[in-house]
Predict the 3D structure of the following.
Amino acid sequence: MPPVLELRGITKSFPGVLANDHIDLTLEEGEVHALLGENGAGKTTLMNILYGLYSPDEGEIFVRGRRVEIREPRDAIALGIGMVHQHFMLVPVLTVAENVMLGVEPVRNGIFLDRAAAARRIRELSQQYGLQVDPDALVKTLPVGVQQRVEILKLLYRQADILILDEPTAVLTPQEVEELFKVIRSLTAQGKSVIFITHKLKEVMAIADRITVLRNGRVVGTTTPSQTTEERLAAMMVGREVLLRVNKKPANPGEVVLEVENLEVLDDRGNPAVRGVSFEVRAGEILGIAGVQGNGQTELVQALTGLRPILSGRVRIMGKDVTGTSPRRVLEQGVAHVPEDRQKDGLVLSFPVAENLVINTYYIPPFARAGLLNHEVIFTTAEQRAREFDIRTPSVLTPVANLSGGNQQKVIVAREFSRPIQLLIASQPTRGLDVGSIEYIHQRIVAKRDEGCAVLLVSPELDEVMSLSDRIAVMYEGRIMDILPADQATREEIGLLMAGVKRA
Amino acid sequence: MQERFRVGFVTDGGRIDDGSFNQYAYEGTLQAAQEYGLRVELLETSSPAEYEANIRQAIERGCNLVVTVGSTTGATVERLAARYPKVHFILVDYEPMEESRNVTGLVFAEDQAGFLAGALAGLMTEREVVGFVGGVDVPPVRKFRLGFEHGVAYTNRRAKVLTVYTHSFTDERKGEEAARQLIEQGADVLFAAAGGCGSAAIRAAAALGAWVVGSDQDHWETTFQKGTGPGADRLLTSAVKRVDRAVREAISLAVAGKLHGGVLRFDLHNDGIGLAPYHAADVAVPSEVRGKVREIAEGLRTGRIRTQVGPRGEDLERRLWARIRAWNWQSVAMIFLAIFTALVVGAIFIAAFDPQVWAAFGQGIGAGLVAAGASVVKAYSAFFEGAFGNPARILAGLQIWLNTGDSARLLRAIYPLTESLRLATPYIFAGLAVALGFRCGLFNIGAEGQYFIGGLTSVFVGYAVTGLPWFIHLPLALAAGWLGGALWASIAGILKARTGAHEVITTIMLNYISYRLADYLLQVGGPMSRPGDSRPVSPEILPTAYLPQFFPNDPSIRLNAGLLLALVAVWFVYWLLFKTTVGFEIRAVGANPRAARTAGISVARNIVLAMFLSGGLAGLAGAHDILGVLRFMPNAFFSGYGFDSIALALLGKSHPVGVLLAALLFGFLRAGAQRMQGVAHVPIDIISILQALIIIFIAAPEIIRFIYRIRAPKETAELVFTRGWGRV
């Protein structure tokens, strides 16, 4: 029997980049095939070709042994290929059933919507694959994990049997990930085939039947979990040996640097986002804040760095009250801030690397004197930083927009870590970065800690929090559920706390 | 008498007789101590861990002047210096990162020493291949290397420089290995800047029969043991850093109370670096080579020859290239193509509007095309003459002026050119105004209103303030125009900063208010009307407020000093935007307000400031037209400058120089169009069409790319002109 899907020699180039270079990939019926690779390895391009968003320069696509041309997503759907995007495409104010049938509404007597038929079908599918979704629930009331299952339902409803899941676990708690895996297994058991795109090694080992690793647009190799290890996969992805675990000595906490007391903060819509949070971070330790995205971490960090007004409570840095001061005053207390969204908050993309490196110190000697910029010093310091932090750029005069994500993050790290700092607030410091860059940034953070800097690390990646932190605080709905010493915390325990469950 | 200075000398890890920096720095210290009768405490550091403790110990022993070699330990010393503000630290071979009053770095022009070594190597090589052995790529080594490379290129264009870095200053084996490798590749002169590792390299190279040049100190004394070591006759010279002299000088400055931190630079000019004697190679170096090297040293000393290496080891030539490459050449080409295309499309309109062309087409296609061609040529030559003047007449006028000294004919001939420049002047001001706003992410549509207010305030000062000499009255009237526009625009700035009201809306509304304000003030019998006049105009301004004319003896030429003022404004805006912290903030807020805020920049303050500055420039455009051209204010003062200036700023890519060029273009277009209408009977509106076409082609570059088959560049962040509605 021919494979469900076969890609042969798919090649796609964009000006200056060979995004896919003669990629071969086969998907057998009932298998989970993981597509593993760093950002920019060509995974997304390949899937967009398969989904008809791009057309390949070369190569052929076979579905069940028949050669096909996929010119637009409509063709893909007709061939039974469906995709769940990283960002859900659901209408929050509609019900599950309405969302699912949107675009393929069943019609009675030519004009009337047949809601009942749709709901029936959804219930059947939900039961058949163990999805446990109520068709009449409003989407906005559903947890993220269930919303994702609604997306999967949409595909099943359209009779897709090749499902592409693009980074499906990025928004889930560990427990939700487990449930998703159950769903995936039940799908494949009934003959569906799944392409699972990710850069997380643990998940690949847990769920995949076969693993294809991409690097720089080429297939590095195809393997199975039983034949490989996480370390080997990482090496395949990056092209060299990578340290997966962070090497660090036990912390040596000193005086209290950051002290937060009963902090209350509102979000953009005026709803409470941080509700009475208290904690402290000492010199020479890393306090990690774990939690599913959107539980008040963003607002907490903004409040600490002076970017968001504080409703009540106190923030002290080195004993000095900085509640409600300006961002500049906070920075001048020796605070480094690696913002969550590097392109929106961390960098001025149209500015050259050199200017981005001084974006918060441009007014201080030696970069400026009496209001006049010293381009000479800015330039030479930038060259030095670029060497020191291994920022790959044609020149420090290149706009930072032209750098890869990893190098953009290095610009921020170089800028924040080269100032004399006492407190580092790092928000998702490795978001969207490749394994090599993550390793590098983790080492730098630990090095800062060992120099006696207090570190507040906020990340929705549980692995990151667990491997870096000395203590872990878990945030849920704006509250800190608990603060645990990292060496005693288990994944399960933290996972439950992330879901708002506190054991007695 | 109490001793004022006690000197502590701490070695950085090497021994005091290391034959290198520690030894020479110590010698310098001792010489100075002898001269000024100072006590010296010596502390030798045997392991890096001891270093900091040794410095503290020196301070505890009462030393208030600490001399140490800082190449590897500078950062440690800087940290200590912050803790001991009363102690002055002299750091050999290190440039302090932070400026402090009690740290003095002694820095050497290795690039000059390297340049001389390279010049000599280039003259001595026979196989046209020379080698360089570097230790670690730190600034002093890089300066040696780049200086060496440029020096070789200076005397011998054909010679190739091969470079090996050993990544060590101590590993002798690596040095020997590097030397062997370079000689195998054909090098017959070898220069090493790699500490002990480099000494090993030149020893090995000398043994293999190559010429060698040492660095830092005279290797005749050290590596070749005063000439007794094997291969000493192959040592050409050494590129020496006179560390002893530098330390002595620094201590004498301290004793004289003139050492205030920072950097002391030692170069050929103050004998801080140089070439060591040729020693045994003396006979082998031809006298013309020696002469040439001496000549180059003299050139470097006086600055006639430059090494093209920056103070921290940057390759200046390469950097210039990077700067030029970083320019977006394609976007420059696109602008010229847009103008060209607009002229071509404009030609079609010109032909289409000409009734004679239609008549000719009635007789046949051929005749029609000929007529169309003639019509376009006639129109565009009239346009050209209107914009630049008639070249033949200018030449004739020039001849008369040269022969008889009568300038009347010449002035008549260049009248169109002066008129173009006169028209360009307010364009420059207003274009700068909008461009400055764009740089801060603000869409200042209110330049027209600010121009109006600037006109009102300057005309008021021009006629109402009396009894002042011109050199006070004129600047006062200009300042009034500037301030009027600036404050008017600030209203929109403050509204945006405080409430988030979008500046497009508020400035449009402020435009209407300014027109009506002028209506009220200038109406017959109004507060600013001309007494006894039946027209709604202001009184004439006093001659003391006139902007001086360029050609006072031909009053028809209206070009005035405002043009110079506009050029100053171009320079000022450029300087402000790119050379000052104020401009840095404005640009950062404009390009990404969120990142700017995160970095501690006040977005609100910069919005108000940018609007203030922008409005001031627009106000100056109004002041120019009042004080330089009209000399009173009519009610119907609509110029269209305010709106054209938006196009100008787009055309000039919001760069002051771009705006200047675009303003000149618009000035020429306007002046040319007037003549085109007069001579070729082409309606003056054609110029609006041309302007509009240029803007369309600039704003929609895809059209131009399609016509000329230009590939889109890789996606880069475009300059943000303005952002969405209702957001700060």
About this structure: The CA atoms of residues 39 and 432 of chain A lie 7 Å apart. Chain A has two domains: 5-238, 256-334+420-498. Chain A has a mean pLDDT of 88. Residues 174-189 of chain A form the longest helix (16 residues).
